[in-house]
Design brief:
Structural class of chain B: alpha/beta
Number of strands of chain B: 10
Number of helices of chain C: 10
Distance between the termini of chain C: 64 Å
Oligomer: heterotrimer
Helix content of chain C: over 70%
Largest sheet of chain B: 6 strands, mixed
Order of helices and strands of chain C: HHHHHHHHHH
Order of helices and strands of chain B: EEEHEEHEHHHEHEHEEH
Chains: A mainly alpha (about 240), B alpha/beta (about 250), C mainly alpha (about 230)
Largest interface: A-C, 39 and 44 residues
Helix content of chain B: 25-40%
Structural class of chain C: mainly alpha
Shape of chain C: flat
Chain lengths: ~240, ~250, ~230
């Protein structure tokens, strides 16, 4: 197993670069981070819409979130695969497809975390802001969201871990991430699938375990601090 | 009936009980009072080994509670324990709480157990609430069911750990009434409580604890006036003037 | 866009059969994996209750492995990796008996078991120690106290998360298509590649997935409401 790692570590790390597009673990992390970053505004919008007193905002937002929760990610990926070329007007590669699908998918799940964070704030916060004369948007952006996001930091790190695991579906659409890279190594070696995929599993394990431990560490440190919302770790 | 011989207990570096000795004879009612942290709850918890001790002995009817080979479960059936937080089983009805022990531990069949359960509930004045779930009962009712639950096991001793401290004031009376009735019937009891009126009426002896030791012992009648029990007097004075329950 | 939306083309004859087989396979996979997951989850919980540190470490490792490695990778290991470690006769048997379905079910079941074990453990931990003490004070031993007082309450608390796990398991069956299991997503792609009616095919699959998912979610909210107990 060590031998395989020695010979192929570069492939696992960066895919076929420089003889092809960047892939491997680098791409995995890049896609996960990009997807999560890009989905943020949408997630906040969805969360606020779900908490809105206006039915015309609340109901569609709720419908969107429930629909996303009801479909497997792979179905999203296929939908994106077929729909994006039509919308964007050109062929869309595996990596782009995956990122777009993840943005939509993660926005829904992240919005639930943000919503929990907002709902977990003591009502007194909003009341205090109102008493000072702050209106809705300034209250939301300067009082509610900063605290909600801080409280939900462990959950968000958890969600990042989930996103990393979800990038593995790139394998199905030949997007150049680390699982796809591993399958390429396996296709060359053929006789040692257990070792190859074992290395893959180990890679994910080390990465995700480290991040999950970070999330737990943050949770321990913040729960004794500000006295905000209880830590809600979203299982993925 | 129950004897404490030089009992020591530590929670880490903190000594909760320091060389406590004392005896509770059959049919006697002893009341433990003292400020919070004095070790009174810890002391009665040692009787059924809910707390273990590091020094001395606790004897129940001659049996050393901490010795190897003691059937602690058998012993706990003979010693009833009523908690401050009642600890009723929320997934069982009032009578279900009582019949659980009767059917599973005493081997009674359902009908017998129910009959016995109803009798115990009647004794504490709650026969009509037999099939209610604990969530629908008031605090005072729950505590009385808890007392009935312990009594159903035919204990030789009843231990009460601040049974009324978690109750709203208007419900304290009904629980104390049940306890007084029990005392009058000749049950051996040890009560940790702040209810001095109850203590004066019912206790054969009051033990005042502080810092893990029994500082003073006295009959209720001796409580008023004498300087020999000055520490106890000071404590009583502070509680009588609306001091908070620990 | 000049595209004619034609559902009938996709829901007729052979293609309808494929969809039906797909749904049946998805449901079969869900059920088999679920049973394995529940059994394994309970076994893990029981192992955890034995006060031997090495056993605790084993369960912790099991849980962490299944939570940190992507499910797809686990499936690939079971399908490509494990058979290569087995003796020839075993491999041949697997291939002759719907190997990919079995291995996918095993992968899904064992992965869900990790989450189920954690959900049950959370349930048990949320029961106040005082309940256990009260049971022991009446005279129950460890097993009696756990069996009659703690576990009944813990399971009530664990049911909503367990139903959520069921939903996740159901959705995760779609990953089995990567190793050729003919469940709904796989069949949908088949229909799509034969009819070229991408939207219609995927629309049908989407509706089916949503209907079943919403059913499970509804079961979840229903049980959440019914099982609430007042404590103390």
């Amino acid at each position: 197993m060590l031998e395989i790692l020695e010979n192929n570590w570069l492939l696992f790390l960066v895919g076929q670069y420089p003889h092809g597009p960047i892939g491997g673990l680098t791409m995995t992390l890049f896609m996960a981070a990009t997807a999560l970053a890009l989905c943020f505004p949408f997630a906040i919008a969805l969360a606020l819409a779900r908490l809105s007193p206006y039915r015309w905002l609340r109901l569609p937002a709720t419908a969107i979130v429930h629909t996303v929760r009801g479909l497997p990610l792979i179905m999203f990926i296929f939908w994106t695969y077929f729909v994006s070329p039509l919308v964007i007007g050109r062929a869309v590669g595996g990596v782009e497809t995956l990122v777009i699908a993840l943005v939509v998918y993660e926005a829904a799940y992240l919005s639930e975390i943000i919503r929990a964070g907002i709902e977990g704030l003591p009502a007194g916060q909003v009341e205090a802001a109102k008493s000072l004369g702050l209106r809705y948007w300034p209250t939301t952006f300067k009082v509610v969201l900063p605290q909600a996001l801080h409280n939900m930091l462990p959950s968000m790190v958890s969600q990042f871990v989930s996103t990393i695991k979800e990038t593995s579906l790139g394998y199905v659409i030949s997007a150049h991430e680390v699982t796809f890279a591993a399958s390429q190594v396996n296709n060359v070696l053929l006789t040692q699938p257990f070792e190859v995929y074992g290395i893959l599993a180990l890679t994910y394990f080390v990465l995700c375990f480290a991040l999950t431990s970070l999330a737990r560490f943050i949770e321990r440190r913040t729960s004794s601090g500000r006295g905000g919302a209880p830590g809600v770790i979203v299982a993925a | 009936m129950i004897r404490f011989e030089n009992v020591d207990k530590w929670f880490g570096p903190m000594q909760a009980l320091a060389g406590v000795s004392g005896e509770v004879g059959r049919g006697e009612v002893k009341v433990l009072v003292g400020p919070s942290g004095s070790g009174k709850s810890t002391l009665i918890r040692t009787v059924t080994r809910l707390e273990t001790i590091q020094g001395g002995r606790v004897l129940v009817d001659g049996t050393d509670v901490g010795s190897r080979g003691v059937d602690i479960n058998r012993l706990r059936q003979r010693v009833g324990f009523v908690f401050q937080a009642y600890n009723l089983f929320p997934h069982l009805s009032a009578i279900g709480n009582i019949t659980l022990g009767l059917t599973k531990l005493r081997g009674m069949n359902k009908a017998e157990a129910r009959e016995r359960g109803l009798a115990e509930l009647a004794r504490v004045g709650l026969a009509e609430k037999a099939d209610e779930m604990p969530g629908r009962l008031s605090g005072g009712q729950r505590q009385r069911v808890a007392i009935a639950r312990s009594l159903a096991m035919d204990p030789q001793v009843m231990l009460f750990d601040e049974p009324t401290s978690a109750l709203d004031p208007e419900m304290v009376g009904e629980v104390l009434a049940a306890m007084k009735q029990l005392a009058a019937s000749g049950m051996t009891m040890i009560c940790v409580t702040h209810e001095m009126g109850f203590a004066r009426e019912v206790a054969d002896e009051i033990w005042f604890m502080e810092g893990g030791a029994v500082l003073e012992r006295g009959k209720p009648a001796e409580l008023t006036g004498t300087s020999a029990h000055s520490r106890l007097q000071a404590f009583l004075a502070s509680t009588r003037h609306g001091g908070s329950a620990a | 866009m000049g595209y004619v939306f034609d559902l009938r083309g996709v829901l007729s004859g052979q293609y309808l059969d494929w969809f039906v087989i797909g749904v049946a396979t998805t449901l079969a996979l869900t059920c088999v994996a679920w049973c394995l997951a529940m059994v394994m989850g309970i076994i893990l919980t029981l192992i955890r209750m034995i006060p031997l540190p090495p056993l605790g470490w084993f369960v912790a490792l099991y849980v962490e492995y299944h939570r940190n490695v992507p499910l797809l990778v686990q499936i690939l290991i079971w399908y490509f990796g494990v058979p290569s470690l087995l003796p020839r006769p075993a491999r041949q048997w697997i291939n002759a008996h719907h190997g990919e379905f079995l291995l996918a079910a095993i992968a899904l079941g064992l992965a869900s078991a990790a989450y189920i074990a954690e959900d049950i453990r959370s349930g048990i931990r949320s029961i106040p120690k005082a309940q256990y003490e009260a049971a022991r004070s009446i005279g129950f031993g460890y097993l009696g106290a756990m069996g009659y007082v703690v576990l009944p309450q813990a399971m009530r608390i664990a049911i909503p998360p367990l139903i959520n796990q069921t939903l996740l398991l159901f959705k995760n069956t779609s990953l089995a298509m990567a190793i050729g299991v003919g469940e709904l997503t796989y069949r949908t792609r088949e229909v799509e590649s034969y009819t070229f009616k991408t939207f219609e095919a995927f629309a049908v699959a989407t509706v089916i997935y949503l209907l079943i998912s919403f059913g499970i979610m509804a079961l979840g909210s229903y049980s959440d409401r019914r099982l609430k107990l007042e404590t103390r």
